[in-house]
């Protein structure tokens, strides 16, 4: 297999290319609450980067900073060599950052197909006039993107639910549709916020397979928040560990696993 | 038994993405159009055409407009009547300035003015939602209604303050004014409504419609898909107000044939159209027609239909009973079937598909 299997053994991972995104000394406060304090790390092109930590460590806040929902008070975020200040979520989307949410954020009234088609919004160009006619160029464009969406549906093995409204789907499938919607954006950086939360073992295995395949086949760089340590150790190339908004460890899964501060953070310290 | 998709294979995406993918549905819509274009004018008398069918068509168009805003984009508006009024007065001014231009062209153009006003009053929608947006659109309703009375330029300085609909012709037939027959007006209304419904259906099935629904269902995720919320919402306001404006122009020029428009475009009309959308089904074009048919025809049925069947009911009582019925039905629908008549229709179709089996 590839480098992933050697991660568990703790071998240093070979450099996966230059940094796609780097976070430098980022701090985020909500009034007096310090959500993130002076955190720095980078995400390299083509790697699977896990962000872990106990509840309330600031993992989701970190993702929100990266795709522009929050604007950190201090520090800087550089994406593809460009420093980004006060970027809006739709600008982040245009720059190639996609994401899924911890609690599924699908468009509940729409079908699976329409949900994933929405992911193609930025790639569609035909104007109001042609859309109102729904013939000629607009229809050709719809069909062209429908083909891409069908490929994604095949990839995620959700053919049987393509016409169903997503609000009625079971949770595991909803997560999968959400992944499909993010994938439809053909992102360079995909942020996954607990993609396996609340799933059973089989569903988790499926999801892991999709994440690895995405990384291998499409070369998508993935940043992943996950509580299942087994999954994190197996999937990720490098792991960053947060606790109370601070970074306490950063390295390969093997390094992180043996880090005393990480063990303390998860298991507690004798006082 | 008769309503099955069995054997209807789709071999390309275009067929699968059609608005009516089922053959039975296509036959159904063809039959409805045939009845509308041939059956109704043949069978209906003048009263039926001008008091039942034309109001139904006008309200359907206004309901489609509001449904695009409220049902598809999730933005509530109480200013529909005001936007209809903008359409009516714009059309009046346009006929004054360009008497030579065809009235149908002018009716379609007057919607653009309504769209522009709609965009202005839609600007707050980026910051405020739900209740608060409803109040902001209420401001549009009151301000515009005030303008219809207080800005005499709008009604050409008439002493009565009324819109005087001039006679305009199409292929030599009078379309507007006192000489226009109900048949002509009905055909013009029908043509406009069918065309605009087709455009609305195209829009909601395309990228724009998906963006609107995305904004409605989960605006955070929509933004993350690269949808600019302000753009999507303002386009929804523009399209919605356009439909309302055209409906308003049709109302005065093809239905009322003039009159004091400030009496017509009141908050009561706004609410009535909102009720049509709620009863018919939020986020459904067919539902807009169902809701409009129901609410527009109920008073007529109560007033003229029941006495004709031998039920003794005076005009005033009929009106009261109509109010009570509509009120009760809205409460019942909100509790039992929030998706309205359109959902009942869907459930019925599903039952037909599986009949005689329960599922």
Provide structural commentary.
The complex is a heterodimer of chains A (271) and B (359). In chain A, strand 4 and strand 5 form a beta hairpin. Chain A has helices at 3-9, 59-66, 89-94, 112-118, 128-133, 137-156, 171-183, 201-218, 229-235, 253-257, 260-267; strands at 19-30, 33-44, 48-52, 74-79, 82-84, 97-100, 189-193, 221-225, 238-243, 246-251. Chain A is built from eleven helices and ten strands. In chain A, the strands form two sheets. Chain A has a six-stranded mixed sheet with strand order 6-7-8-3-9-10, sandwiched between helices. Chain A has a four-stranded antiparallel sheet with strand order 2-1-4-5, covered by helices on one side. Chain A has two domains: 1-96 and 187-271, P-loop containing nucleotide triphosphate hydrolases (Rossmann fold), CATH 3.40.50; 107-185, no CATH class. The radius of gyration of chain A is 19 Å and the shape is globular. With 359 residues, chain B is mainly α. Chain B has a domain at 21-265: ABC transporter involved in vitamin B12 uptake, BtuC. Chain B has helices spanning 13-16, 23-43, 46-72, 80-97, 103-122, 130-150, 182-204, 207-217, 219-224, 229-256, 261-264, 267-280, 285-308, 315-336, 340-354, and strands spanning 168-170, 173-176. In chain B, strands 1-2 form a two-stranded antiparallel sheet. In chain B, a hairpin with a 2-residue loop joins strand 1 and strand 2. In chain B, helix 3 (46-72) runs antiparallel to helix 10 and helix 5 (103-122) runs antiparallel to helix 10 (229-256). The chains are: A alpha/beta (271), B mainly alpha (359). Chain A binds chain B through residues 67, 69, 88-90, 92-94, 98-99, 101, 105-110, 114, 117-119, 121-122, 124, 126, 128, 131-134, 138-139, 142-143, 146-147, 150, 181, 185, and chain B through 12-14, 17, 199, 202-203, 205-208, 210-211, 213-214, 216-218, 220-229, 235, 283.
